[in-house]
Design a protein that fits this description.
CATH class of one domain: Alpha Beta
Number of strands: 20
CATH architecture of one domain: 3-Layer(aba) Sandwich
CATH superfamily of one domain: Vaccinia Virus protein VP39
Distance between the termini: 66 Å
Radius of gyration: 27 Å
Length: 609
């Protein structure tokens, strides 16, 4: 007890707790205000929807022109915004790999070529325009051999690589002769030789592949006819739009680079990896690039290398080097591969093939003094979203006996077999896998009634923006499409299941831009994405990103809770999309389908924005 200025006794022991309680209550009041405060243009958590009155039954499908069309359903309301056009110099805008921002990052280990997304206050809220003279893409399979010049108007790569037969410009088109730096006589003969070295390419054993430093993806394009689905990977660099050329041709591709972070794929996924004179420094920096290839390659999988230092005895003069230097490089490479439990499988001419250990016997023999050391359990081997590459060896989990290339079912049988790794998924089982497969078969039948072009040559490049087991892609397997399956980096890790089925995909966070160029997909599909991500991602930016990557004339299938439809429709209208609401194949009011089509328009805005 002490006296105050008036001489009265004051109990300080009571003042302090009261002051603490006052501060806590103020902080809690501010926090609750942020949580429950609302902004018209932001998501509202789906949790709040549970307190809404049940929606009334809707009438037949109709065109949606304004939020008033859903006046009978309690739903998210957003103020209409007419989004302006970006300037024409943003026609090839890739927000997270933007050359305008490279100077902010160092060139050490190519860090500047990795993903560096702009902060919220730098995000563009405008519509990315097509190049002047843009035309609807040439249809598959003709598109594999030619595309419109005005759709990808880049001359540098044509001038630099025409002598290697990557592509050539004739009139209004680019043509792709199928050549490459290491296969100037055509990719077909190159792959024929590869099949002689790897017979497993012919019988369905090898289904998924990755091509690092893919050029214009001629290797991946050729493999499509051989039943092998390839992810063609290349950074946005001085080669100008390698990935955009690939996607314009209708070949699966994604922006990416082997640098400081893991590639956005789970461990033990690809049956084969390939590098044709990709000039990746495989033995530098502790061998991190090769360690990453080892991580994503399935046990028993093959790594194919052509170009330096392979066949250095004959080729060294053309590489501006010495035979001594190239011999040393080859020996370093072979030594590193041996330490990673790879064995030289076959070699002929300019092609060398190594095979990853099909079991754990080799890894079990490695001592503590071996370099690189085996990774500990502190980091999930499947963690691959902004995850640094570690200079350690990821050993396959011995728990999974059917993970290896010789154990997993051959294609196409593996598509319908519940993979062993489904047991890693919460509530994952053979029965949930089959139910998911059957469900999507029915959904896709219904989708084809809503979009007759689906299943024809008018739709080629497809993305499932938030898949679970790849059921949507599996239901389209007999159609002339390929599907990029996207699994949320913040959700359940089901991507290993997708790769074990013989499909392809990537991790991604839809609060950020996707690793691709504008106008690269014919169809975007999502099911409950906004329901799942409403607490993290702002609807406006997700839809603007969808607009960026969707081709003019392309479709979006938005399967979502009815609560979000007014908001989605309002934003879509501001992006110049035409949308209509449809019932699901099961009917009911809680979930509906929005079919949207992106219009073709040309830039009228030449000023900087």
């Amino acid at each position: 007890m002490t006296k105050n200025n008036e001489g009265k006794l004051v109990d300080k022991s009571r003042i302090v707790p009261v002051a603490i309680i006052f501060v806590v209550l103020c902080g809690l009041s501010f926090y609750m205000g942020v949580i429950f405060g609302s902004e018209n243009d932001r998501f509202v958590s789906i949790i709040s929807q549970r307190s809404l009155d049940p929606p009334k039954e809707s009438t037949s499908p109709k065109e949606l022109s304004s939020p008033k069309d859903l006046s009978s359903i309690s739903s998210l309301q957003i103020k209409y915004i007419s989004f302006p056009e970006c300037t024409i110099d943003y026609q090839d805008y890739t927000p997270c790999t933007d050359p305008r921002r490279w100077k902010k990052y160092g060139s050490y280990r190519l860090n500047l070529l990795e993903r560096h997304c702009p902060p919220v206050f730098e995000r563009k809220e405008c519509l990315v325009p097509p190049p002047d003279g843009y035309k609807p893409p040439i249809r598959w399979p003709k598109s594999r051999d030619e595309c419109w010049y005005r759709n990808v108007p880049y001359d540098w790569i044509n001038k630099q690589k025409s002598n290697q037969h990557w592509l050539k410009k004739e009139g209004e088109k680019f043509f792709f002769p199928g050549g490459g730096t290491m296969f100037p006589n055509g990719v077909g003969k190159y792959v024929d030789l590869m099949e002689d070295l790897i017979p497993e390419m012919k019988d369905g054993t090898i289904r998924t592949a990755i091509d690092t430093g893919c050029g214009v993806a001629s290797w991946g394009g050729d493999l499509l006819d051989r039943g092998i689905l390839t992810v063609s990977l290349a950074p946005r660099d001085n080669h100008q739009a390698q990935v955009q050329f690939a996607l314009e041709r209708g070949i699966p591709a994604i922006l990416g680079v082997l640098a400081t972070h893991r590639l956005p794929f789970p461990s033990n996924s690809f049956d084969m990896a390939h590098c044709s004179r990709c000039l990746i420094p495989w033995t530098d920096f502790g061998g991190v690039s090769l360690l990453e290839i080892h991580r994503i390659l399935r046990p028993g999988g093959f790594w194919v290398l052509s170009g330096p230092p392979i066949n250095y005895e004959r080729r060294w003069r053309g590489w501006n080097t010495t035979i001594k230097e190239q011999k040393s490089n080859y020996e370093k490479l072979q030594g590193l591969l041996t330490s990673l439990c790879f064995k030289l499988h076959n070699k002929k001419g300019d092609i060398a093939v190594w095979q990853k250990s099909p079991d754990n016997d080799c890894y079990n023999k490695l001592t503590k003094d071996t370099y690189p050391p085996k990774c500990d359990d502190s980091l999930d081997s499947d963690s691959a979203w902004y995850t640094p590459i570690r200079t350690c060896l990821v050993v396959p989990n011995p728990k999974f006996k059917n993970l290896g290339l010789t154990s997993i079912s051959k294609w196409p049988e593996r598509l319908r077999v519940a993979p062993e790794r489904i047991s890693k998924v919460y509530h994952g089982s053979d029965s949930t896998f089959k139910r998911d497969d059957d469900k999507w078969k029915k959904h896709v039948v219904h989708y084809k009634k809503l979009i007759p072009e689906l299943g024809t040559d008018k739709i080629r490049n497809v993305m499932d923006m938030n898949t679970v087991y790849g059921g949507f892609a599996a239901a389209l397997i007999d159609d002339p499409v390929w599907v990029m399956n996207v699994v949320s980096s913040y959700g359940a890790n089901t991507l290993p299941v997708i790769y074990d089925r013989g499909l392809i995909g990537t991790f991604h966070d839809w609060c950020e831009a996707f690793s691709t160029y504008p106008r690269t997909y014919d169809l975007l599909h999502l099911a409950g994405l906004f329901t799942a991500e409403s607490h993290r991602c702002e609807m406006k930016y997700v839809l603007l990103e969808m607009d960026r990557i969707l081709r003019p004339g392309g479709y979006a299938i938005i399967r979502e809770s009815s609560y979000f439809f007014d908001g989605i429709t309002t934003i879509a209208k501001g992006m110049r999309w035409e949308c209509r609401k449809e019932d699901t194949d099961q009917g009911g009011d809680m979930e509906k389908i929005l079919i949207c089509k992106k219009k073709l328009w040309y830039s009228s805005n030449k000023d900087s924005r």
